[in-house]
Amino acid sequence: MSASNVVKLEVRRVKSAPAIKVPKKISDTWLRNLKSPANGKQKVGVADNLILELRNGGKYWNVRYTLNSNRADMRVGTYPKVSFVEAKAERDEIVKNAAAGICPKSAKKIERINDHGRLAAEAAEVKSAGEPMPTFKEVAEKWISKRSKGWTVKTTSNAQSRMKNHVYPHIGPVAIDEVKQIQIITLLELLEPTSKGHLGKFETRDKCHAYLKQIFTYAPFVCERLDSHRPNPAAFSRKIALAKRDDENAPKKFKALDFKLVPDFLSDLDDHSSSPIVKICLKLQMLTLLRPSEVRKGEWSEINFEERLWTIPKERMKMREEHYVPLSDQMIDLLKELHAITGEFKVMFAGLLNNGTSFNKGKSISDNTVSKAIRTMGYEAHGHGFRHMGSTFLNAQEKGEAGEEERMWDRLWIEYSLAHKDPNAIAGHYDNNSYLKGRRRMMQWYSDQIMPRLG
Prior knowledge:
Number of domains: 3
Structural class: alpha+beta
Radius of gyration: 34 Å
Shape: elongated
CATH superfamily of the largest domain: Intergrase catalytic core
């Protein structure tokens, strides 16, 4: 063979990745920070017979064992789907089987013999191994979307607004597994007063904290690569980590009208300059024991004059359960008076326009419109306080001779009238049909105490 026919082969050596120093104590932070080499793969012995293989952006656990004098490796999952602790447990089981002469791979196949989705799951696992971890905002928005199916529109809007204004600016773009507890505490502290005596946003702070705890609990269900054993960074005690409310920031309670003032209140209301719609709304709030919004946003399709029943759909109820209100004579009279004004509209309490001279046919009056009437009459009360007034009054009523008194009205009748769930029922189930007959008698009696019938 001539020299001209000799082909010279040039062999290029691929530079191996530098050795990785393994700390004495393996932490999730150290494991997360490990990077795959630019070319090929790299194996890191993190513990006896436990190897983490780095390649193509993924991290694969391998257990090394010896069976019949032959050494072999066995894959036991990817990190972080399989944590360091879980990988060690798998290693212990494999080494134990090998020492007893049992082939670990055969043993694992027997365990998975009915797992028809194993190959698809492993293929998906390899495919997603190199994908970036989702951000906190991405996970939070999935959580809100899921929870909103059981929330009212207002509750959903409030949650979205709080997250947008107070949470996303600080940790929204951060990977869900990189959010630290100190970051959460710091963003919540921004909602506290800057100095003693100043007002803070404690209600918003506490709501945001509750959201955060639930979001981090939810995260592993939508992100398989997230270590489910990772501590929830928002699961800490507010009493220990955050400021305590002072008197200026104490939760504001809805003020109830003293029952003794009811006659004066109704007399002042009749003489007030408010629209008839506002006056009827306030009177029905007093009589029905409903929440203010449940009265204000009522629709005529919910009223059955023949059966003397107001059926409020679950979408409008705080407890997300359909609610029945048995209508007393006084309620029927007020609704008929209101129907003569707004009966042609969908909503019962149509919004007022042009100083009350026209209506917003598709929108109900605002809470501020109704609350303003109470304030301008000189009463320190809130529409929600009528519920407390009615509950207190009804629960205090007794019958029977002295020394043998008993409750006039069943406690559960009162709780159902307030649309509270039965604490004694399974899972707090709410059964509207229960006690409806008794509640009808009670509500008529209560209406007679508020607005006595003539004759």
